[in-house]
Design goal:
This protein has two domains: 1-38; 42-310, Aminopeptidase (3-Layer(aba) Sandwich). The model is unreliable at 31-41 and 58-105 (pLDDT under 50). It has nine helices and eight strands. It is of the alpha/beta class and 311 residues long. It has a six-stranded mixed sheet, with helices on both faces. It has a two-stranded antiparallel ribbon with strand order 4-5. Helix 8 (231-248) links the parallel strand 6 (220-225) and strand 7. The chain is elongated and about 90 Å long. The chain has helices at 2-38, 44-73, 91-104, 135-148, 160-166, 174-188, 205-208, 231-248, 288-310; strands at residues 110-113, 153-155, 194-199, 209-212, 215-218, 220-225, 253-259, 276-281.
Length: 311
């Protein structure tokens, strides 16, 4: 009789255990189904913020002692934003950065825009949030990296598509749209001196990716329009950035591509300023993490060129 009762108790425990496990699994299923139906999505600005926070958090744990030393020795320390930080900032660079900040009086110095805002990268870390990062994420990353280095910039958020629709224009007129936004931004922000049009290449992954010190980077290419009568000035500026970038990250740049002749734009708004450049980051098969690495590298090189210009 006792054996029968024990068997019944064991059977009841198994039934209860199975019941609770089933409820747990079902609740998980319901939760994921609900989230999927909600179609949660992050925009490019949020993606950039997540990447930046993740990068800075990792850097903080790895480089805390270095940061503390810098804070003790520099009255206005420069935030270190590179996971591959190579050492303490030299005093010469600090003085140059300070003079750059004072010269611009903390006003916006750089205008970052995307003539082709819908150029996408491969969904990866953010795929579960129904996100396909675009070149606008690159722009936001660049903006925040510049900010951490004490340089203010503006990212153009107005829609190229809206301009084209409003003016009954086709996609081929995207540079006309971005030019209109650029001009109005310059009028509203007279301090703007540098203009960066961020794009994405269309080549396959093996042509757009490079490994440097065990980390994947997207390759970067500069495009110069030969139909601009003053293209030599834009070429000189792009060449300085390209050379600095290659000296810091050998192999990351594909160089400078000169484009002109029949059937192409040939200007790319570079007649707007001698300091207007067009830069392509990676291709459609690259992940936003790889784009992030190269954006950090580009920002370092670009900032170094600015410091040399005011030095």
């Amino acid at each position: 009789m006792k054996k029968v009762k024990l068997k019944n108790k064991k059977r009841k425990r198994k039934v209860l255990l199975f019941f609770f496990i089933s409820i747990f699994i079902y609740s998980i299923y319901i939760t994921f189904t609900y989230l999927d139906n909600k179609n949660i999505s992050y925009d490019n600005k949020t993606i950039a913020t997540i990447l930046l926070k993740s990068s800075n958090k990792s850097l903080k744990t790895k480089k805390e002692n270095i940061l503390n030393n810098i804070i003790k020795t520099i009255s206005n320390p420069i935030n270190i934003v590179n996971n591959n930080y190579k050492g303490l900032v030299k005093n010469k660079n600090i003085s140059q950065k300070s003079s750059l900040e004072k010269k611009e009086n903390n006003e916006a110095l750089i205008y970052i825009y995307n003539s082709h805002q819908t150029e996408e990268y491969k969904p990866s870390n953010f795929a579960e949030y129904s996100v396909s990062p675009t070149v606008m994420a690159t722009s936001y990353i660049l903006k925040e990296k510049l900010k951490e280095d004490g340089i203010n910039s503006i990212v153009e958020e107005r829609s190229i598509k809206d301009y084209l629709n409003a003016n009954n224009k086709k996609y081929v007129y995207s540079y006309e749209a971005s030019r209109s936004y650029m001009e109005s931004s310059k009028n509203d922000n007279p301090s703007l001196k540098y203009f960066i049009d961020v794009h994405r290449d269309s080549l396959p992954r093996d042509k757009t990716t490079v490994e440097i010190n065990g980390k994947n980077y997207v390759k970067i290419i500069f495009l110069i329009g030969l139909e601009n009568p003053n293209f030599e000035s834009n070429l000189e500026f792009s060449t300085r950035i390209n050379n600095k970038l290659e000296s810091m990250y050998p192999g990351i740049s594909k160089g400078i591509y000169k484009k002109g002749g029949a059937g192409v734009n040939g200007v790319y708004n570079q007649d707007f300023s001698f300091n207007t450049i067009l830069v392509e980051f990676g291709g459609p098969e690259n992940t936003i993490d790889e784009v992030f690495n190269s954006t950090v590298a580009f920002e370092e090189a670009f900032t170094e060129v600015l410091k040399e210009s005011v030095g």
